[in-house]
Amino acid sequence: MARVNNWHLGREMSYPYEARFPERQFAFVFNINRCIACQSCTMACKSTWTFSKGQEHMWWANVETKPYGGYPQSWDIKILHKLHEADPGGQYWDGVVSDERTGPYGQFEGKTIFEAAETTLDPESSRVVGYLPADEEWSSPNIYEDNPVGKKGVRDQLDKVGTELPVHDTWFFYLARICNHCSYPACLAACPRKAIYKRPEDGIVLLDQEQCRGYRKCVEACPYKKSMYRGNTRVSEKCIACYPRVEGTDPESDGVPMETRCMAACIGQIRLQGLAKLDEDGTWAEDRQNPLYYLVHEAKVALPLYPQLGTQPNGYYIPPRWVPKPYLEQMFGPGVERAVERYKFPDRELLCVLNLFRRDNRIIFRYEIEEGPKIYEGNYRGRPFTLYNDTVIAFGEDGRELFRTTVEEPLHVRTNVHANSI
Asked: What was the pLDDT predicted at 123?
């Protein structure tokens, strides 16, 4: 295997192909503190892409309840167990969480799904540790929805002790998911037909169905299980990141890069999608005023999903602040403590950027902040806190202003003429 740089892991790792990177990388941030599992994203995707015969089990976008839920069922538990079997006791992070772009979460000392394959799989043509979900595991996209966790070691009983933020004794949270359009896709690595590729202009991972022969190696290899097999056509399919919208060729876009259908439909305002500039080694190039860059590399509140798997996913999550830290660290890596702390006590700039989420269907390439008056001063969670009504301005790819919004949500009083009309 080739050696490639993985900045999530803080080191080089093995991968079947030499590293190649796009000009810009499709990426997104989900703030799951806000997710209410309304499934608007799920149905927007389903009604656009997967409503036909043979696609009944396909949910390219889904929202699952953690810790028990998952689609397909137990996808993350199973892949983590396989990595533990390949490297018992060795799956840990070393070093310290830092402010560096090249290794912000320390260094992962364990084996990725590619490295574990070198020592555990036979024949040699097997490139990725994975598994094929059974049919019944695809049958219940909302299994264990709203099922909370109770007292540790006690089954079927909630914790009777009252609780308060930041940590609940009884807890659950919603995890919204789509294909992560990874920098090192496992589906691409495993495909014997080379039917899967990353677009050079935006890094979106696509599957050429004319080349696919339905071997399902991509389904087996993807640790997030976002490549799916369609039985009536005998080929695989996956999320295409609504690339006509992203590239501005969708009829609705009018030539302007737009967010995907699942992003645009989000009523909980948890989603922000964009394009990140890349350096030659695949790390994000410094782009200080890009909101995604700011959230991932400056504020450091957004973390990758299961970075230890090694695919360098381009989906990032602001972790829920009420969930026990050990669970979150397993899911998002060692940066959790810092991310939750900064989200709980946001500075002026972070408050502004958080207000960019879901304010427009067009992709934001840059933002600016105009300082506003002080509107509140007091204590917040035991600390002094001052709130300013700053204005954040979003700009598109061509540098034109898309919109502006304030930290304090404006209040609109409807006139008494047709007061109840929309």
From this structure: 66
Q: What is the DSSP letter of 186?
A: H
pTM: 0.95
Check residue 154 and give its pLDDT. 82
Cis (ω within 30 of 0) for the bond into 185?
A: no
Q: Which CATH class is domain 2-347?
A: alpha beta
CA distances from 251 to 92, 213, 258, 303 (A): 48, 32, 11, 33
Residue type, 146: D
Closest CA to 405 of 379, 362, 368, 361: 368
User: Rounded to whole angstroms, how far apart are CA atoms 91 and 82?
Assistant: 11
Coil vs helix vs strand at 400: coil
- Find the angle CA(313)-CA(201)-CA(366) to the nearest 5 degrees: 75
Burial (Cβ within 10 Å: 0-12, 13-18, ≥19) of residue 377: exposed
pLDDT digits (tens, 9 = 90+) for 313-353: 999 999 999 999 999 999 999 999 999 999 999 999 999 99
Q: From CA 132, how far away is CA 75, in angstroms rounded?
A: 10
- The CATH 3.30.70.20 portion of the chain extends over 2-347
Specify whether the CB–CB gap between 367 and 356 falls below 8 A.
Answer: yes
Query: Is the bond into 326 cis (omega within 30 degrees of 0)?
Result: no
Helix (H) or strand (E) holding 82: helix 75-86
Q: Around Cβ 229, how many Cβ atoms within 10 Å? A: 22
The DSSP secondary structure of 108-169, one letter per residue, reads E-S--HHHHHHHH-SSTT--S---PPPGGGGS-TTTTTT--B-STT-TT----S--BTTB-S
CB 306 within 8 A of CB 76: yes
What is the per-residue pLDDT across 139-164, written as a single tens digit (0 to 9) for each? 999 999 999 998 877 887 888 877 66
